[in-house]
């Protein structure tokens, strides 16, 4: 494996500001430090730059792009390591998918992480990711002490799908992926988009009940 830190790919350098280039290079260095024993510079750079491209193509605010790219690349590299048997963990991975990854799947992710703690891993994604999380979803979850403000809409990728043990779909229809050998659940839930806070609270509570049932089926004790 190479010991050199990754850096922004050539196709990005010409479009980034000096601060963005510095932030992305710093992000690449952190990823290299975290995954140096598992993946080389080229793989890390590929995941970082393609993650950056994903967010840059639809971002309305660009200041946080390097950070979002780093976080998404880290998740994807962890998923790839699990798929390739390089991640030493037996924790089950649940993946929550909806259309915009802005409401239902984000609330499910919040519930799962809150209730399961470090006993399991949860990720989320959307077929058509929005640019921000539904603010009523954020507010409804905050009311019960679960903070999802640090999350962000993102797509699913092949390595993330392959790493999941359970895939929960919520209204993504024909766009929902089908991977052999995975456990699937389809939750029929109202889309919180353009709904009132009162309606979103009801969706939140229904998701919470479904997540508890899922955790019970995985033999995970909830907090």
From TrEMBL:
CDD domains: LMWP_ArsC. PANTHER family: ARSENATE REDUCTASE (PTHR43428:SF1). It comes from the Bacteria. It comes from Nocardia rhizosphaerihabitans. It holds the Pfam family Phosphatase-like_N. Keywords: Arsenical resistance. InterPro entries: Phosphatase-like_N, Ptyr_pPase, Ptyr_pPase_sf. NCBIfam families: MSMEG_6209_Nter (NF046112). Gene3D superfamilies: 3.40.50.2300, Corynebacterium glutamicum thioredoxin-dependent arsenate reductase, N-terminal domain (1.10.8.1060). The keyword ATP-binding does not apply. Residues 92-217 form the Phosphotyrosine protein phosphatase I domain. This is Arsenate reductase ArsC.
């Amino acid at each position: 494996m190479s010991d050199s830190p990754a850096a922004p790919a050539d196709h990005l350098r010409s479009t980034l500001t000096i601060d963005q280039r510095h932030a992305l290079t710093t992000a690449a260095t952190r990823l290299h430090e975290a995954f140096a024993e598992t993946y080389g510079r080229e793989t890390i750079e590929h995941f970082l730059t393609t993650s950056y491209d994903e967010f840059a193509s639809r971002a309305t605010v660009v200041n946080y792009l390097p950070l979002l790219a780093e976080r998404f690349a880290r998740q994807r590299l962890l998923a790839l390591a699990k798929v390739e048997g390089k991640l030493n963990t037996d924790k089950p991975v649940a993946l929550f998918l909806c259309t915009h990854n802005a409401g239902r799947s984000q609330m499910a992710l919040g519930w799962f992480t809150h209730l399961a703690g470090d006993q399991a891993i949860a990720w989320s994604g959307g077929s058509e990711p929005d640019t921000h999380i539904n603010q009523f979803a954020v507010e409804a979850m905050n009311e019960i002490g679960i903070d999802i403000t640090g999350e962000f809409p993102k797509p699913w990728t092949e390595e993330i799908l392959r790493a999941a043990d359970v895939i929960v779909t919520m209204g993504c229809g024909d766009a929902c992926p089908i991977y052999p050998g995975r456990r699937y659940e389809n939750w029929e839930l109202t889309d919180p988009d353009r709904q009132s806070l009162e309606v979103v609270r009801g969706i939140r509570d229904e998701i919470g009940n479904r997540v508890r049932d899922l955790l019970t089926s995985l033999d995970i004790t909830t907090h």
